[in-house]
Write a structure and sequence with these properties.
The protein has two domains: 130 residues, Rossmann fold, CATH 3.40.50; 275 residues, L-fucose Isomerase, Chain A, domain 2, CATH 3.40.275.10. Helices cover 36% and strands 27% of the residues. The two termini are 36 Å apart.
């Protein structure tokens, strides 16, 4: 990792003495990182893709920083070891920045703590850069029942740099009609061969679903999409199949894919993938027990790579086409939902997946999770329906990232 240290030093101090004055902290950092010293007068040479910290080398630089604040990295992380009155100066600068609405933090103290903190900040920086410029395809329109899951496209782009692209469903229909049964025959055989069982669905159902997967993938490639959300239920009349298999396989391939045209859920999936490299399971909270803080989540699609094994079923609501019943490994999980029209709110909890349930009146993939937080959130203050589950405990990592981006945690 290369760290660009934007260096501010008083004109009273000679440049040659800066290194020697901070030898202890700099030599330790160089054991872990490559340090690139940038004089503050050359800050314009850095790009948004350069990870940069502001190195306060001496006192008396407050006005120099204030004059350069428009060019400073956001958030502005100040490194100050205390030598040459650097910490005193950093305190003044941090207060000044925060009073103007800019996020600022001072790295100071034990070197190992600073190194760990830099690792977290770098991870956040990379995730932010990954999200910025994402093209999220909205294929069709949001499902009519998702009345609280809207996103203001302009505000989302301003806050996160993501671009929602409206794509008419006709684009998928055109591709679907061009793909023959013979083209997908082997893929169907391979997918069925890896399944634990195949229950209600017929071979014809699987062929149609695989053709739809190929059609949606072609649209993704044509539009250079990072992620997509699919208006699943509108597909059925035209194609005779649902999007469950398509979304499962796209997620398996690293193309972030969400259901029902849910704009907030697909952003959550994309953000979590950028931050943790984990693919999420998008699901409906279906049962909540506030006494035991347990919740059952269910949906008819899941990336098969998230499962220990999977069963080919039909789609629960329509009792037709293809659905996926995944059997997930038990253990630690994290539940997350980004919400609000400009994606500035979130729910977050770690927990333990204790059981794969099999209720006949719920969607096909079902999991029971015991939360480490109060389950009352789902009944008293929910951020809509769909929530995302990822394997592992990433609560601290995700919370750090969303807090750094000015989001409000809902509990």
């Amino acid at each position: 990792m290369t760290i660009n240290l934007i260096t501010f030093a008083s004109l009273l101090h000679k440049q040659v003495s800066i290194r020697s004055s901070h030898e202890m902290i700099l030599s330790e950092l160089e054991k872990y990182f490559t340090l690139n010293f940038i004089d503050y007068t050359e800050i314009h040479k850095l790009t948004p893709d350069d990870f940069s910290l502001v190195f306060i080398a001496t006192g008396g630089v407050e006005k120099l920083v204030a004059q350069s604040f428009e060019s400073l990295p956001r958030p502005t992380i100040l490194l100050a070891d205390g030598m040459q009155n650097s910490l005193a100066s950093a305190l003044e600068i941090s207060s000044w920045l925060r009073s103007r609405g800019f996020k600022s933090e001072i790295l100071h103290g034990e070197t190992i703590s600073i190194i760990r903190r830099i690792d977290i900040l770098y991870s956040n920086f990379c995730a932010q850069r990954s999200i910025n410029g994402m093209r999220i395809g909205v294929i069709g329109t949001s499902s009519s029942w998702l009345i609280a899951s809207n996103v203001d496209y302009l505000l989302a782009k301003r806050r996160w740099g993501v671009e929602y692209i409206d794509i008419p469903m006709e684009r998928v229909y055109e591709q679907f009609e061009q793909i023959t049964d013979e083209e997908v025959g082997q893929a169907c055989a391979d997918f069925a061969g890896k399944a634990l069982a195949c229950r209600e669905a017929s071979p014809e159902d699987l062929i149609k679903a695989m053709r739809l997967y190929r059609a949606v993938k072609r649209v993704c490639e044509q539009e250079y999409l990072t992620a997509l959300t699919l208006s699943c239920f509108k597909l059925i009349e035209q194609t005779g199949t649902t999007g469950c298999l398509a979304l499962a396989l796209l997620n398996d391939e690293g193309i972030i894919a969400g259901c029902e045209g849910d704009l907030q859920a697909v952003f959550t999936l994309a953000t979590i993938k950028a931050l943790t490299e984990k693919t999420g399971f998008m699901a409906n909270p279906s049962m909540v027990n506030t006494r035991t803080n347990e919740i059952v989540l269910a949906h008819c699609t899941i990336g098969t790579k998230l499962t220990e094994k999977y069963i080919i079923r039909n789609h629960f609501e329509t009792e037709s086409a293809i659905g996926i019943q995944g059997i997930l490994p038990t253990g630690e999980v994290t539940i997350i939902k980004c919400g609000g029209e400009c994606l500035d709110e979130y729910y977050l909890s770690s927990g333990t997946l204790t059981e794969n349930t099999n209720y006949i009146n719920l969607c096909r993939t079902q999991i029971r999770v015991k939360l480490n937080t109060n389950a009352n959130y789902f009944l008293k203050n929910p951020l809509g329906n769909h929530h995302i589950v990822i394997q592992g405990n990433y609560e601290e990592t995700i919370n750090e990232f969303l807090q750094a981006n000015g989001c409000k945690r809902i509990e």
